[in-house]
Write a structure and sequence with these properties.
GO molecular function, one term: serine hydrolase activity
InterPro entries: AB_hydrolase_1 (IPR000073), AB_hydrolase_fold (IPR029058)
Helix content: 25-40%
CATH topology of one domain: Rossmann fold
Distance between the termini: 30 Å
Protein name: AB hydrolase-1 domain-containing protein
Shape: globular
Organism: Anopheles coluzzii (African malaria mosquito)
CATH architecture of one domain: 3-Layer(aba) Sandwich
CATH class of one domain: Alpha Beta
Largest sheet: 9 strands, mixed
Pfam families: Abhydrolase_1
Oligomer: single chain
Number of helices: 10
Length: 305
Amino acid sequence: MMRLLASTVAAQCGLAIRITKTTSALSSCVQSPVASAVRSRSMCSSAPGAKERRLQVGASTVHFVEAGDGIRGVILLPGALGTAWTDFKPQIEGLPALLPHHRVIAWDPPGYGKSRPPDKQFTVDFYERDAAAAGELMQKLGFQRYSVVGWSDGGITGLVLAAKQPERVEKLVVWGSNSYISDTEANIYEGIRDVSKWSARMREPMEQVYGVEHFPKLWSAWVDGLLRIHHERKGDICSGSLKHIKAPTLVVHGAKDPMIIPDHVPYLLNNIKNTDLHVFPDGKHNIHLRYANEFNAIVAKFLLA
């Protein structure tokens, strides 16, 4: 099905489609085959040369990890309730060697992980607020222009940031992301609200970050936030803003991603001016963890081009 989708997108947009089959071993800290994005977040929380720092960004004290010492910047934006270490350890470890002229910044968004208290408030504009905070963080670190690499919710934040501050974002990479919420996805979110129905392997990584009692409350609040956008904004997260993105954009897609409907891939390609697509035919939602080495190489090549 994804081969058909890729061919259709290529015909519509004139893009060069690269379909990659990957079978290499996982990073030593990643749990074996990834049945779900959440389960795969159980990872080691250190990397040689990486530094943990905090900066005041607006009203929030933001925790982030910094790796590499280049003069160019790239920020990694995690998924829902995600943190620098839970979502991006293979990138924190691997990208600096591939991007020697970059500093890699991976943050805990305000209200997540070590960027608490307080917990995040999931208002209808929480992606916009995260995008503004990410931009301010990079400017405080001395980057007037920088690249953005965002997964899932972080990809949405990246889309918003690139649309709101096109002069700041040099290049953009997103995967597992959407610019609107369909009725089908609203039902998916409601269906995963009750974390007691999750397997222990899915729950435990987030319970380690937020606590056994608090994680269900914060996750339910996230679901409420997405449903609020679906109801109050008719599902429009940032669809109308995509036309303002000027940065060359790479959409990476796992063809077996269960978290987003396939329609989002051609939608992004058709509505962002300068896009390319890379497909992992057997990839799911967390291709950057399941195929860490290949993913890092693809991202590095795109950022250096």
